[in-house]
């Protein structure tokens, strides 16, 4: 590159000479402002402290002992990352601007970085100026910034995360400052750059860097310098100005690059890489840290297909889907009534069983996975815990079936809304490269409940019967949580000798998790009937309820009142269950709507479902009638059942079918020999044994009315039925066996608990107790005490953070005096586990080797053994 060898970084630093430990300056100390985050928290009120703990609940686990511990914990990397992930795009842009601003920065400097300060016509955005106070307030509330408006400070960890570095460019696309970029440069090379830029030479590198910085930050002089640049040099700057600021150069760069490098507009970052200094980039950007500030969230756009929809249409469509959802879950669990598939060794359902379930539900596999996970989340489906573990309905399923349809739907919708298990990721690979299976481990995504509720809330903010476009909804979610997406922004080095590309930020091609969750939410809410035609239904609004408040948790169970309100809103839109069907001459029955449960259960045994929809069509066949007879029904009972529940006369072909099957049913008897077949009609047995189709049954005539078989009874029954006969099974006593379905149920199970996204939001009671404890602990840690009396009679002040040390006699005398005067004292205490602490107590009684008093640290009355008190000191009068 033609530059001199780099010197070790840190040869000189642009650090104010009046800086004091802790990041503050002597000017701040003199002005009486807070010097640390702990002091800023100490100066605030209890409301500000409670707001911080509510916004960042991870700081409460465990409750900090004092404000210094709280400030330290608030500055840890994990906590700061979590806080940054909860910021919206504009609040994050404000934090990013502070990360590249001088520390501390006045409010006006921050505003200038977001609106531009070069006097351009488009530099002052009133929307930015109006929104910035709110963004600063959010950052203050979350303790990401502190200090007065004239000295705003970004928490050091946040600055390290957001400020540019060679390994991680800034999200703003800005590079290091001139001082940072020249930290390892030789003094001679710095003087050459100063001279080439038209500046007078200086006697030391620090002043030379300051002069170059002053040039780049002076609008008039910088503009004059750029006016002399070749057009090709301006094109190079245009590719670097909005980031990434790094560019690759060859050993012999082109003349435009040499011109920029010689004047410090490009500074070496490595032997083959140059960087555009931050001050120069800000001048070229008209002082803006971001190309496009986004102070306002994107507006939701209404989908064209629903612009003419009415609330009645939306509610009707949603109610229809709700009824279909109930029917689907019932069909699923009815299919597993006698026991479902076995559980994989690693947990979950096999791919083959998922395919079978999808075929049984007449849907695709992703949709079948959703219904399975919904039944599991609602506690209707679980594993039975047997040695050959399998899935089966739970006892709660039977209770659920007894509820009215609206209440059953509300239970399903409430379970879906708060569940963290996500059916959409079934088939994805986990960290070990294994495919995730439905009902298996690894499907929890803690962000799912928050995204579901937020998506539905955004839809609910639109006018009734209005659905948003998917693109505008996803754009809104990305604005609200820009750091939550996978992929995110990627920065690289733009070759300054190449062509093409603007060097800007490129979004990852993979869809982020929140966008996937939002897309799945739209589809699942439509399938459940929470939305209709993409718009939020009336019962969906009732399920969400009013404003959730600051203490709301997305994973908390939906309150019973909201479930009841949703069920009440849905009930008028669902059809009343019918007690009749329409029998037709073609051996079918039409159910024009949902049937009452006893009727539906009996009809499901007597006939096969042929088609579903607004009306369900059942078909009567010899096999279905035989199934009803096997279940213990007689022909007369079937005739009576159909006559009672049919609005049309019973067709003659159906009566003949029932009588014909009943006449032959049980004529043949099958028992266990291995098995045997007996019949009073020896001619019929002759016919069976002579039939070629019976060869596989290995029949052998034992008597005129008895035939033995090597097949087991169930195989013999199935074989004879496949030949067109209607045999019946009999017991060892010769009685006909009634073949009824035996319901298989798991032991009582609780639904899977949602996995929350971090600690839960504390309620008002916990917040109040935590604030009092932190304040009391801070009082004990920072309390001013009177000088203690040393053994030699001298007086010495107590050192901050050091436990007081007094003799047993002095301790007893001091606390007894405090009881008489009613004053508070500062004690050092060591508990039974050997943990030492400092406390401020107001003693009220001393007896039997114990002191009882009000502990300001714990905010309660406590008793302490005197022998565990290391020492005591009186509080200073002020």
UniProtKB/TrEMBL annotation:
Residues 1-35 are annotated as: Disordered. Pfam families: Helicase_C_3 (PF13625), WYL (PF13280). Residues 810-872 form the WYL domain. It comes from Streptomyces qinzhouensis. GO terms for molecular function: DNA binding. The keyword Acetylation does not apply. Residues 581-703 form the Helicase XPB/Ssl2 N-terminal domain. The keyword Iron-sulfur does not apply. This is DNA-binding protein. InterPro entries: WYL_dom, XPB/Ssl2_N. Coiled coil: none annotated. Residues 1-12 have a biased composition (Basic and acidic residues). Keywords: DNA-binding. It comes from the Bacteria.
